[in-house]
Backbone:
């Protein structure tokens, strides 16, 4: 199993209308950033911008890296149980 498959099971409470950034992409970006020592929304955005070619090896990021405000908003809308299950697996 590829690690990216684990991100397919993340549940969120966003409406399906106008979703510019898939939740799996955002969760992967945030977790990768945390592992690399980036621990706030602004630095996560900088990490994503600086490593866009690398993160695109795992997910398409068709719309690029979102702003720090969008990252924070999307993360807040993830169901905690599904994120917990992802981290355990």
Residues:
């Amino acid at each position: 199993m590829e690690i990216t498959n684990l991100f397919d099971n993340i549940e969120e409470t966003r409406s399906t209308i106008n979703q510019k950034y898939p939740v799996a992409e955002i969760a992967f970006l945030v977790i990768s950033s945390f592992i690399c020592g980036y621990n706030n929304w602004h630095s996560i955005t900088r990490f994503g911008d600086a490593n866009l070619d690398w993160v695109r090896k795992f997910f398409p990021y068709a719309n690029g890296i979102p702003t720090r405000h969008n990252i924070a908003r999307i993360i807040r809308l993830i169901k905690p149980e599904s994120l917990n299950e992802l981290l355990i697996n």
In short: The two ends are 11 Å apart (CA to CA). The mean pLDDT is 91. The chain is about 55% helix and 0% strand. Residues 21-88 form one domain.
